[in-house]
Amino acid sequence: MTDHLLTALRDLAEPAPATLAERVVDTWVRVPGPLGEVVAVAGARGVRLLRLTAHVGDVEAFLEGYRTRHARPVRPAARPPRGLVPALRGTGAGPELDLGDLTPFAREVLAVTARIPAGQTRPYGWVAREAGRPRAVRAVGTVLARNPVPLLVPCHRVVRGDGDLGEYLSGRADKVALLEREGVELERLAALAAAGTRLVGSDTTGVVCFPTCHHARRITDAHRHGFASLVRARAAGYRPCRACRPL
Amino acid sequence: MADDEQLRAALVEDLDAGFEAVVRAHGDVVHAVARRTADRAADAEDLAAEAFLRAYRALRGYAPARIETLALRPWLLTILLNTARNDRRDAARRPRTDGVTPVPDRPTAAPGPAERAEGGEVADRLARLLAELPAAQRTAVVLRHVVDLPVAEVAAVLGIGEATARSHAKRGLDALRTRLTADTSEETA
After folding, report:
1. Are B141 and A24 a contacting pair at CB < 8 A?
2. Family, per the entry (chain B) (predicted)?
3. Which listed site, A230, B3, B100, B138, has its alpha carbon 20 to 30 Å from A117?
4. Residue where a domain stops, chosen among A89, A123, A147
């Protein structure tokens, strides 16, 4: 009987799941990106941090900073996280992201930002409204300025409400380069902003959009009307586009 | 599997690479104890991972001389048990907000036909009885008999004398034997 009990107890020692080491030890890689090489750190649940190598400077010091800040070990990865390289080339759904260290509001801001289509821009105030806190425009700016995964969460597509491109983690020139690469017509947007035009509508559909919305880009010159605000557009009988939800 | 001597040398050489080797070498024993300490099976891997991360954090502050003399397995298990204790205290202070109702590892319903299969049923019942032991006895039985540590190491993990460790384990074992017999006679009655 004693032997049976001891054997049964020893059988209760379940081996660790194969995933335990991945859960504990994060990995890092260098891969090419649209602004040059990037360094990415990933845990078992997804990419946790991404930075431009050029912006980081000394990669070893960067990794040491990561270990100190997050109190997690990091070793070189055998291969990049699935989906990372295609996402940086502008294709695919992107890798899994692990944003568990962020506040719920920051996660929501990044989730909203991630839904802005390539080649389009949205104002900070729009992100704030979509994230459920329309007055938290500055807080949105702060969250995006600290975006742990730029390029993967396209914070470069968020611009100022007055049409100015605003700032970017690695500098305004990088923001311009990224938007141009996606086909955003920056000169046209600047001209609209200079004229005080924030939204454009079509007099055939009676719908008003952000200028970069794919619906707005289909409007022919003869039918395009500019508006300084959604209030003005509504007063003229236009309704906001359901795709880009202008404000 | 790397022995502790090699692991300690690896830690001193390159903390992060060495630490991964430590997780691979001691993951099974840490997880097995976590599994018998966590209230829910799903929490065991979380608990083990959290304990390893705490261990890593501590190692970052240790001088090489200290790492070179560290008895890794009992040190890791001490951290695991402290982590589990802190988690339980935190859980008692604030209710879970993730919508998961904490279910103690004690099935209330009778096991289904599949679970009644030979062996599985015995293991389930034993796991339940083990979970019901007083904490000191349960931990001693888990360390001594589930993961098979020598008495001296059980004592080191629990920070108690060897005689006390032996007596906790024995009383736990006796209680399990009594309850197993009682359970069986209830079922056959």
Report:
1. no
2. Belongs to the sigma-70 factor family. ECF subfamily.
3. A230
4. A89
